[in-house]
Amino acid sequence: MNLIIISALSGVVMMFSGLFVKNNRTISYIATALIIFLSLATMCELGAKSWFNIPQAEAMLRTSVYGKLIGVILTIATTFYFVLSGKDIERVGKHVADYYALMFFVLAGAGILLSFQNLLMLFLGVEILTIPLFILTGAQKQNLKSNEASLKYFLMGAFSTGIMLMGIVLIYGAMGSFDLSVIGKKAQFATPIHGANLMGLLLLLASMAFKVSAAPFHFWTPDVYDGAPTVFTSFMATIVKVAAVVAFIRLFEGSMEPFHTSKWQILVSILIACTLLVGNITAVFQQSVKRMLAYSSISQAGYMLFAVFAFNAFGKEGITIYGLSYSLATIGIFSVLSKMQDITFDGFNGLARQYPGIAFALTVFVLSLAGIPLTGGFLGKFYMISAGAASNSSYTWLFILAILCAAVSVYYYFRIIQAMYFKERVSDTPVFEVPVSKAFPILLIVVAALIILIGINPQILLQYLYF
Amino acid sequence: MPINYYIFLAIILFCIGVTGVLTRRNAIIIFMCIELMLNSVNLLLVAFSKMHHARALAAGAANTTAGIEAQLFVFFIMVVAAAEVAVGLAIIVMMYRNTHSVDINFLNRLKN
């Protein structure tokens, strides 16, 4: 509850600070102070009760320990994002305070998605999450690419919302309630599964696959991520995606009992296989690092969907580790990318010679995304695949495919390392558009150290799941 | 009237909306088709609300509130759709200022 209420209030504070504060740097400082306060507030909620005790809301929002922990992860990732990319957010356009306000509103939507207990709240959470993103995508008003991306995102997002609503209504028609626990209880006794309920579940599955950009519903992702201002792509590909995956799990976890048969796993395994193949194979052919990261975020979503395949404790632990290590690594890479002049692989040429600190941190991020041992990304992938194997070991082909796809991903991720360390810089243009501050490489290395720490000792994170 | 009629009407409207989104090339018309989808959902919600209410009454409850949550849901959909219209039309206007067109065939700068 802390996350939802405080982030919504912070959004309002940011909107007003846009009126009264003229200096962009000050606005960034205010936003950073607010997000640090927000992460502290979510951490306080982890061990104790919420600051806001609203028993009447129990039917709508019910926070589990797991949801609280994911909330902490999201706010910590956002804190690092604000600190690392604050200067890039200031460069996007004139309305800096509004961008921060919109991002706080996105966090409020994420908070709802982590704890919804009613399909009405699912709908509201998804909308609060996505509507600010349409605006952020189109933040560069004169840039045609940004315009195009935001129009595409808007049309596709609204379309998938329509499909989601139809799914919700069909489930309501069959079950007579929007409450997830009531639906779950009723569905246990309704065998064979009611036709309208089944149709509704399939429509919900399609629209949620759309939101997490799982293939074959992924086609909007590369264009939108490519067209949006690079700083905001970072936010969309990490925090928003993790929140959407967690909502996906929560939606189908308790309530869809009759669906948990072998048929459900066939459906999800096809979804995962398509997502992994499309994401990884298309990413190989990209020249722009930004577009490559867009496809890689599709394939990472494929790994996270193993939790939807399995629905067990392994999957939850996996999402926790995966969410944090993936978000931090991607935020780190994007924070460097959004400062660069040339966002193709060639732009990274010779970076290690000029900026050894940044190059080292980037290497750790890339290793983590590719899933090399000792990094958080490896443990994330390990937990996800073992979650799948623990729930149903007859899907050997899927697990082998996942491991092979991780091997393929090494190719395109390591092109960044190759460019940084083994290629010479031919042109005289500077690597970065703006001079980077001295603190920036240190911060990046702190983030990289955090990723390695999770990779060595995941218990520091997972112990909170079992308070 | 049986509930079937309402379900068929809503599903036909929904399918018209989906077809329009997939086939039309004008951003505003696509937008109208999305609104049609949302409104077919509203219609179906109200019909189901009445159905569950009647069913609860038939089951013997004297003064039941069953089905009321679906009508509340309709208001939420209306409010959210209005918020979406505000953002969506702003995006379309922004697009129109730059390209002097709302045809989505112009949306091909991001393809490789």
Walkthrough of the structure:
Chain A: It catalyses: a quinone + NADH + 5 H(+)(in) = a quinol + NAD(+) + 4 H(+)(out). Chain A: Belongs to the complex I subunit 2 family. The complex is a heterodimer of chains A (467) and B (112). Chain A is mainly alpha-helical and 467 residues long. Chain A has helices spanning 2-20, 24-47, 65-92, 96-115, 119-137, 144-175, 180-189, 195-211, 220-227, 230-253, 262-284, 289-304, 306-310, 313-337, 351-354, 356-370, 376-391, 396-422, 439-456, 459-462. Chain A is built from 20 helices and no strands. Chain B has one domain: Orthogonal Bundle (Helix Hairpins), CATH 1.10.287.3510. Chain B has helices spanning 3-23, 27-58, 68-99. In chain B, helix 1 (3-23) runs antiparallel to helix 2 (27-58) and helix 2 packs antiparallel against helix 3 (68-99). Chain B starts with a helix and ends in a 13-residue tail after the last helix.
Mean pLDDT of chain B: 90
Mean pLDDT of chain A: 90
The sequence of SSEs of chain B as H and E is HHH
* The CATH topology of chain B: Helix Hairpins
Amount of beta strand of chain A: under 5%
> What is the tally of beta strands of chain A?
0
Helical content class of chain A:
over 70%
Structural class of chain A: mainly alpha
Form type of chain A: globular
Transmembrane segments (chain A): 6-22, 29-52, 64-84, 96-114, 120-139, 151-175, 195-219, 231-252, 264-285, 292-313, 319-337, 358-383, 395-414, 442-466
Subunit structure (chain A): NDH-1 is composed of 14 different subunits. Subunits NuoA, H, J, K, L, M, N constitute the membrane sector of the complex.
Protein name (chain A): NADH-quinone oxidoreductase subunit N
EC number (chain A): 7.1.1.-
Q: Briefly, what is this?
A:
Chain A has 467 residues and is mostly helical.
